[in-house]
Amino acid sequence: MRTFLFSYRSLLPLLPVLFSGNTAPILAAATPAPASAAISAATDPAFFEQRIVPILAQNCLKCHSDSDGKVKGGLAMDTREGLRKGGKNGEVITLDKPEQSPLLKRIQSTDPDEKMPPKDTALTPAQVADLTAWIQAGALDPRTTPTKGPSLAEQAAKAKNHWAFQPVKVTPPPPTKGTWARTPIDQYVLAAQQKAGLNPNPEADRSTLIRRAYFDMVGLPPTPAEVQAFVQDASPNAWEKVVDHLLASPQYGERWGRYWLDVARYSDTKGAPSRRNNEDPRNVDAWSYRDYVINSLNEDRPYDLFIKEQLAADLLTSSSDKSPLAALGFLTVGERFAGNQNDILNDQIDVVSRGFLGLTVACARCHDHMFDPISQKDYYSLHGIFASTKNTKENPLIEMRASQEVFEDYERARGEALEKIRSQVRAEFAKTTRLFRKNIETILLTLPLERRERSVALRKAGLDVRDLEGLRAAAPALQSEPAFRPFLAFVKLEQAQWTNVAPELCRRIAAGGERFEQVPEGVRAAFGQAQPKDLKEVAALYGKLFAEVEALQSRSVTDDPLVVALGAIPFRGEDSNALSADALIEKLGLRASNAIAGLRAQLDQIDMSHPGAPKRAMAVEDVPKPANSPVLIRGEAGSRGEIVPRRFLEVLSSSQRPEFKLGSGRRELAEAIADTQNPLTARVLVNRVWLHHFGQGIVGTPDDFGVQAPDPTHPELLDYLASEFIKNGWHLKPLHKQILMSAVFCQSSATNAAYAAKDVSNKLLWHFNLRRLDFEALRDSLLYIGGRLDLSKIGGQPVNILSEPYSDRRSLYGYIDRAALPELMTHFDFANPALGNGKRHETIVPQQALYLMNSPLMVDVSRRLLARPEMTAATTDAQKITTLYWIIYQRAPKTGELQMAADFLRELRATKSDQPVAEAPSPSPETASKLPRTKKPSPEAIAAALANRRSGGFQLQNAGERVERRPLEEWEKFTHALLMANELAYYN
Amino acid sequence: MNDHPPFGTEHDALPLSRRAMLQRSGLGLGALSLATLLGEDLLGSQVQAAATASLVPKEPHFRAKAKRIIQIFAYGAPSQVDTWDPKPALAKYANQALPDLRGKAFPSPFQFKKHGQSGIEVSEVFPKLGEHVDEMAVIRSLYTDIPAHEVAQIFMNTGSLRLSRPSLGSWLLYGLGSTNQNLPGFMALRNGGAQPSMTESCSASFLPGVYAGTQISTAKLKPDEILENLRNPFMGIKDQRKQLDFVSRLNSQHSANLQHDAQLEARLQAFEMAFKMQTEATDAFDLAKESTETRELYGDTSLGNQLLLARRLVERGVRVVQVWHGGWDMHNDLEGNMTKRGAEVDQPAAALLSDLKARGMLEDTLVLWGGEFGRTVTFDNNGNEKPGRDHNNKGFCCWMAGGGVKGGTVYGATDEFGASAAVDRVHVHDLHATLLALMGFDHTRLVYNVNGRDFRLTNVSGNVIKAVIA
Fold first, then answer.
1. What is the DSSP letter of A217?
2. Are B267 and B386 within one domain?
């Protein structure tokens, strides 16, 4: 070891090379070194730099770094001070007993609760020896600046090789054996199967195939006639005809639009309303965004344009067509987080980055991304873009939907609702004004007090602070009200000044001297005759003036100078008659009483449900002065760091990353995302499409293509699809068609044990997956089977799809309240709009079964189905059973099934019907009227909401009848049973 | 201890072993019967159920005493110095200004008395609960982030101020599953109208919906109002049985054509469970089935009935029962209101502890009482004749008893006047970490991966208070 000691310095230039691997540096290869020698070496500062720092950086700083804001157990190891100080359990290095140092114990511990670094990583014996030597030598720590962990640059270098950041690269489809493969898709899939010793299934039979195509593309079953036509169609392009028919169906946009709405965390409400503000939580125009999505799919809008419009429709064209503005709902239909701006921006960054790019940029809000090459600076580059964007003051009108007559009725209803608000505002203004005048002396005398003391003082004087709610907001304004300037001048007087200064002050006021020029004549005159001896007397002067105003006004005198001067106090400039509807609502913002809140909810109700309400876009616009955002250290609003330019993510940009200069930069951002060279955008989208066609993505995590994502099951296929997609002008329909025409899609769902042993999860797609209908498809199909699904129009205002009387519209038109997602939808795995969702959970729980067993909807569907003409035309039991099978399962019953059905019917007929248990009276007011989430709804608000229940209240209510509560007849029981069975809920 | 299988994430969705597949697709008991139902050819079936979450009972990270939890959520923020944190210094400085505090000292109008062998001092408003102090750990040094009710209530339940996160109950259900598949595993009882924060406080957020809390209004317990669609208004139960038998025959045929796919079998089982749920849930909620003595023990009051119901539910295997008990927001008339609220909870909660103990269930049932924050030790500044206390997030208290709790413990302390947690401070995240530990979980490892990040109840904080664990 002499060599070590002597050659140490001479080796220094080589050290970076020697230590480039983080384990077993060759110098330490001879460990365990004689302790004394190592200790001597460890007294050299270079030893610390070269041997200790790498250990800390690689193993410790991820969790123990003050500069990164992560100090687990209170221990920061990135600075000398932090390491010396130790953590919350005390010092980690004890120099009096070096070998007892907790740090050394922890790195050598085998107890999983104790050992450091945690999990599967461990220091090498050499590293342990180095740390031991270093501590024994006195733990010399020459650091003056914090040590950095592996830098983002290093991470980025590593992540650069991550497949998702590589350009899309097309590998020609591999040659395959046999005749199974029809399309390049099949070649990629088959080649992978053959490599694994698997073979795909043959084509499914035609009735299975058409059912699959219908549920897959439009979320509804085919009609018996459609099935029969396809089964009997001998033409070579029979399948293609079905595919083309479905692609042209308007129901396609409804089915596939819903998938995008999951990604866009679509909801009709803002979330819990701001607690300080009695606002109505509804976004009455959100549905215009929903309809934009549906229409975009039906029109096959190119995806790049779809992206650009959702981010920057307002900046794209100056065309007079305002309808694309609805696309901006992508940014605005998120939660409002009770008004917390940074949370709103975070939501926007999240929905944009995961939705379009499959990148979890929001993870970099408080620190650099843990895994992906996304820096905190990247996050705040995007933050600046959205912080420079705001919701437009009013949602611009983009389409008149109704006839002039209906529109006028809407205007009238809205006007009436507004007038109710106005008169309520007037009444509250008047009430407060009277209270104000009556108590002006107390109010003035308490004006100088601090807010809390003031409210106590007011209460002591018998004034209820709640009655003066409006006043509380008006108080600051009182300070600047010219009429009160004299009073405030007297407030400043010292005790001793009252005898000599006060009279002079009175004179100056009366004469309209300096600072009193704007004091109204009547007030000045009053001071001209007064000789106040203390502040109380000054206040009394005002008391008299306001009593006079009150008296004059009660006699309807309006032109008296005193009335003109003081009549509008304290609500100067807030004449409710003069304000526009929206200005009025905005003004009310912070001081809306519960009564007004109830009325305002009625107004929203009209906007959300009146057929004459025009379509309005929840648009955004750039702020007048777009600005860059500072990095918020640890994500805390109060800790502003370096200001970063608005620009695109580093990992997806060329080395010359331009700053965004056009306004907020949204348009430039959209262009960067929709760039054909962007390696993620097309891949992420084709993967989403693939996922919904097959029930599994090529990449298993549709919203995360980062380093943590599982590798694609078919990387070449993914790139092929992405490149074809761009080549086809970013159109989705050709992509669907490519997939539907493939043999992979058309193969049967049969499985076998031998293949399952090799690939149980069907990663290699050797069979079609059995698919369960999601909530929307299940409910829609039931209504469709019952002959009551309304397919006559696309889009429109939201409806209530859950409670009676039931809506006939498709489920995606259901009202979605993100703050109170109905339990039923939660049980059926509806995507929680708290976050964007590329893939829903799939659970099977008894509550789903309860819905199908017991909800009146099922009875309604059964009865309507039995009333369909096909059913009433059937005469024998066998005919009826057969027809039901065709309508519900799209196939004929087999002989055994006919027999089973007949047996069941006979059993029902043979026994007396069992009486149902009587229902509790419903709906209970408590469940029927969801009051706004105010602390204590006033009787008025409750009354308003209850009165409004007929037209929906806070739950929309459809027109129509409840399902009749009469016991089921045998055919109804039989039909209901068919509707509950698995065959309806699955396709294969 | 560290060999617990990782919990589900998006990333590990595929592939699955046959056993895992069965567990995920079956529902509890279903897993067993499925295994016997199906032959080896099951392996060949389609595994769409991969992402299927379930309530099948699961083992926690380590062996823990508590298997279930009843939380009495005293929302509205109960005062600490009038309940479990005596501060004689307040009387000494009555009506005087206190250092660094606004307003004047408001001594508690209530006497404190030592109870049990531990001699823990308890306010006279809880005479009966006082008899149980030797089973309790009282934490006197809690603090939280914000003194606004709704936000703090959500924080206390989910560990998150604004962003949607799963609640404590959902995390527990996710981690432990439920031993009764015929009832929801997490129920929140309220008396009448919902609190605004309740929905978020019961949310499963990004966890599968099966882990969400089910809210139940106990104001009028009509069977069909306990759970949605619990009763069929068109058909008697015997007819429904016949109908489901027929459905089952239909399903068997269908399933045979599709190689008995696991999820088809699971759905079939779900109908059987739903059928049983109809009777079981009604039965669980039927307090008339309790003896007169028991009903008297709890008292025929709203909270008495709710806590008795809570016991009936946990007895049936429900994992988490939360009872929302409000009225603690005492800005005015602290003396009168505290007397009233105290009396409301004292007898029933004491009865719950005695009853659980008598049934041998206290040792594995964790009982928790506490609110979302505390109150000022000075007068509320609202000028009311009968004084109250204002909001205070800097210091408050809670108690826990039963399942693995070290009884007779006082942990932490507020300052001399009771205004702020001062010694061994316990943040809400620490409380959550401790509750999870009592239920058998390392809070840093009870995680769920969403979009590449492992989320947990305690976010990036939380320290287990080992001193309250037996």
1. H
2. no
